[in-house]
Specification:
about 325 residues; alpha/beta; 10-stranded mixed β-sheet; globular
Length: about 325
């Protein structure tokens, strides 16, 4: 009996050691990054003008990506807006970007280089059309811009595209019935303040900091764009079908709106890439965009509207395979 005790002790010690190894293995699995590494390398992300929402959103998204994919170098590149952004991605000068649906559709309809390679990742938030005038201006509608000096945005911008469509819907020829200034949101407010122009168009998320800042030091007013123009825009067909009636809430620019909402137009923005983008990278980047909504939204109000339930709708672009994988992975 006394000789059996050492054998029982050794067996218990063996079982104890095995259990310790199992616990240690589980602990290492939990603590160490033994799984697949996050995507690495570098990508170029085309944003927008320095004072626009695209740029601010891009900077905050870059920070979110750095946390989720620390091995990925994201290089931001300013642009004049949606039209330039679409062209850059389609032709390989950028890997990802944000662009409005009408700019995407225009590029596709015109059959420009690389159009068939474009893919959608997520529907993000809406741009709202602003028509800004001094508070004392007699301009009360788009039609009242006839004969006026109006900033309509640079040639490669989304605002230029929208401004031309809206002017045409109001019965105005952008090339003949107004004096068009090709300025962007960086210079528009100063031109209005110094009476170099009578009005300017802008299309962006709410609020746009440049408009917000202008309203704080100069009396401005937002001209309504009514539902009658929406119907005429839809009659134009093509890219104009992506415009919809919207209401700019009263708290978007309190000093300018003085407690009142403003009828206007809205158009959806998409995160886009190319068909040949790495599926895993695109899946993880789409995941970061959705998961960082609240973090980015705390500083860019428009980003709060990113919604998983509507993010998959990127018409006229098909979803990229990587983005499709992400949506399948989170499907209830």
């Amino acid at each position: 009996m006394f000789q059996a005790l050492p054998r029982i002790g050794r067996r218990r010690a063996l079982f104890g050691s095995a259990a310790a190894f199992v616990v240690l293995g589980l602990l290492l699995w939990w603590l160490l990054p033994l799984g697949e590494e996050s995507p690495g390398g570098s990508i170029t992300f085309s944003t927008g003008t320095p004072t626009g929402v695209y740029q601010k959103y891009g900077v905050l998204l870059q920070s979110a990506i750095a946390k989720d994919m620390p091995r990925l170098d994201v290089r931001l590149k300013n642009s004049d807006g949606s039209q330039e952004n679409v062209r850059r991605v389609a032709t390989g000068k950028a890997d990802f970007t944000i662009a409005a649906a009408d700019a995407v559709e225009t590029y596709l309809l015109e059959g420009k280089p690389g159009a068939d390679r474009l893919r959608g990742c997520a529907r993000l938030y809406d741009d709202y059309v602003h028509l800004v005038v001094p508070r004392t201006s007699s301009v009360r509608s788009v039609a009242d811009l006839r004969g006026r000096k109006v900033a309509v945005g640079p040639a490669g911008s989304g605002v230029r595209l929208i401004a031309e469509h809206v002017l045409q819907a109001a019965g105005l020829d952008p090339a003949k019935d107004i004096s068009a200034f090709p300025d962007g949101i960086g210079t528009m407010p100063g031109l209005l303040r110094h009476h170099t122009i009578d009005a300017f168009f802008w299309s962006g998320g709410l609020p746009t900091s440049a408009v917000q800042k202008l309203s704080g030091g100069f009396d401005i007013r937002l001209v309504p764009i009514g539902s009658d123009l929406v119907a005429k825009l839809h009659e134009q067909g093509g890219a104009s079908r992506y415009y919809r009636a919207a209401v700019m809430p009263a708290d978007a620019y309190p000093a300018a709106q003085q407690g009142g909402s403003v009828q206007t137009l809205a158009v959806a923005n998409y995160l886009i890439t190319r068909e040949d983008s790495d599926p895993r990278l695109t899946e993880e980047l789409t995941r970061t965009v959705i998961n960082s909504r609240d973090r980015i939204g705390s500083q860019v109000h428009a980003a709060q509207l990113v919604d998983l339930r509507t993010a998959i709708y990127t018409d006229p672009l098909p979803l990229h395979e990587g983005a499709r994988r992400y949506y399948r992975s989170v499907k209830p």
